[in-house]
Amino acid sequence: MKVTRGGKVSELLKDIPVPAMFHARQTFPKEHIEPADIPAAVRREMTRPEIAGRVKPGMRIAITAGSRGIRNVDIITKAVVDMVKELGADPFIVPAMGSHGGATAEGQLEVLASYNITEETMGCPILSSMEVVELGCSERGKMVYLDKNAYNADGIIISCRLKPHNAFRGPYESGPCKMMTVGLGKQKGASLVHADGMNVIHENIPTMAKVVLEKAPVLFAIPCIENSYDETFMIEAIPAERILEREPELLKLAFKNMPSLIVGECDVLVVDKIGKNFSGTGVDPNITGTFSTDYAHGGIKVQRTAFLNLSEESHGNALGTGLASAITKKIFDEMDIEKMYPNCITSTVINSARIPCVLSTDKEAIQLCIRTCNGIDADHPRLVRIANSLHIGQIMLSESYYGDVKAGKYPGVEALDEPKPLEFDEDGNLITAIQA
Fold first, then answer.
1. In what helix (H) or strand (E) does residue 274 lie, and over which residues does it extend?
2. Does position 55 have pLDDT exceeding 60, yes or no?
3. Could you say which DSSP state residue 187 is in?
4. pLDDT tens digits for 321-359?
5. pLDDT for residue 436
6. Diameter of the chain by CA atoms?
């Protein structure tokens, strides 16, 4: 694609003003587990009487590790590994990420390494393979598959995060059941879970998880829940026979701990960085309101969205760009289609991989979004800027919000300074830091 600066597009946008913005702090409940205390929290859960007896000396234990950007995931995983060793068993880690990592064993190892999960840091083998075994059919007639290495272990520990999903709603969203069916199902199993569409996946996940629990040596799950600041809030071990009962209860707690953009509405949302380490769709639509399907809702009400950069941790997987109104040439040039499209083929959701308007600079991406909004106060557009969808404790708001924030209209939002023009370098890159 030819994207040049200084052409007709630049001419049409050059006089579109970008409003002055101010730094703001959003305050949410802050209860969390300090990273240094995570091993003790894992120990406490794994030594509960109904959990500890499941790991016996000499057993080979598979421990799952996924592709999401979970805070402290390396600390949590290492703590589980160390406890398995302490209980006299032999642990190994299994990448449980469906088709992520380009749907290759090597790619999935690369994803784990980017989260500091390697054989050296974890102190145990990592067995990465796309081979699966058939477990049988669910009550909905779907064949269920499981990672071969995990299936051949003496026991499986489902380590994961539990949170709302970004494309559907149901009692079971992102959590142990999805990890068992999509993550451990690898590309083949994940494809079948998604095959009926996002309006049915909420039925496939628990019915297929039931088969895994019946046919595979799952010992227990140990999901974490995060608070609004992307910090570890809770870790709980769940016996295998209670997973289907307990997961919906914990999902309600996860919803309560989700952050939000408190102002509720804006004309343009600017996201500095997207990536798979922030959400499966580059940004979490539960925050940004940019859903890839009609089967989930929430987040800020927004008319246009600009994405400016792609994270290194995403390894070229720019899934989520299709949810933007405009992206930069930087993101477009870093896209790796071989990393993006396997996700779409597996999930059957292609909206998030579409190519939106591609602009040569950060400034022009923002200007295009402002210019193409309909029915707004063009002299005072409402802009919200976030670093990414995981970290929204500090944000930026355009001057149109300033009076209301100072007057206390938005409880939990505090102005940290006064509105000032955003600064861009000579290449049109946004250089004003988002943190005051």
1. strand 265-274
2. yes
3. H
4. 999 999 999 999 999 999 889 888 888 888 889 999 999
5. 55
6. 71
Smallest CA-to-CA distance from 396 within 337, 329, 308, 324 is with 308
C-alpha separations of 385 from 44, 92, 261, 272, 375 in Å: 40, 41, 10, 7, 21
For residues 183 and 129, give the distance between their C-alpha atoms in angstroms, rounded to a whole number.
12
Confidence of residue 67 (pLDDT cuts 50, 70, 90): confident
For residue 239, the surrounding DSSP H or E stretch is strand 238-239
CA 303 to chain CA mean position, Å? 22
Give the Cα separation of 369 and 435 in Å (integer): 23
Q: How far is it, in rounded angstroms, from Cα 427 to Cα 249?
A: 50
Q: Distance between CA 65 and CA 63 in Å, rounded? A: 7
Rounded distance between C-alpha atoms, residue 91 and residue 236, angstroms:
20
Residues 6+ apart with CB under 8 A from 211: 135, 136, 137, 138, 144
pLDDT tens digits, residue range 311-322?
A: 988 889 998 899
Query: Do residues 292 and 285 touch, judged by C-beta distance below 8 A?
Result: yes
**Residue 19 φ then ψ, to 5°:** -65, 155
Mean pLDDT of the chain: 93
**Dihedral of alpha carbons 378, 380, 382, 383, sign:** positive
Tell me the two tokens of residue 335. 């896209």
CB 170 within 8 A of CB 244: no
Q: Over the range 255-290, which residues count as b (16 or more CB within 10 Å of their CB) and which as e?
A: eebbbbbbbeebbbbbbbbbbbbbbbbbbbbbbbbb
Those residues whose C-beta lies under 8 Å from the C-beta of residue 315, and which sit 6 or more positions away, are 101, 107, 110, 111, 114, 276, 336, 339
The position carrying tokens 């081979």 is 131
The structure's pTM equals: 0.82
Q: Convert the pLDDT of each residue in 279-323 to its tens digit.
A: 878 898 889 988 887 777 888 999 999 999 999 888 899 988 999
According to the model, what pLDDT value does residue 6 have?
A: 85
Q: Which residues contact 36 (CB under 8 A, 6 or more apart)?
A: none
Helix (H, G, I), strand (E, B) or coil at 265: strand
Encoding tokens for residue 296? 């989930």
Cα radius of gyration (the chain): 22
Does residue 272 contact residue 385 with C-beta atoms inside 8 Å? yes
- For the chain, the first-to-last Cα distance in angstroms comes to 37
The helix (H) or strand (E) run that includes residue 68 is none
* Residue owning tokens 């969808």: 389
Residue 25 token pair? 């702090």
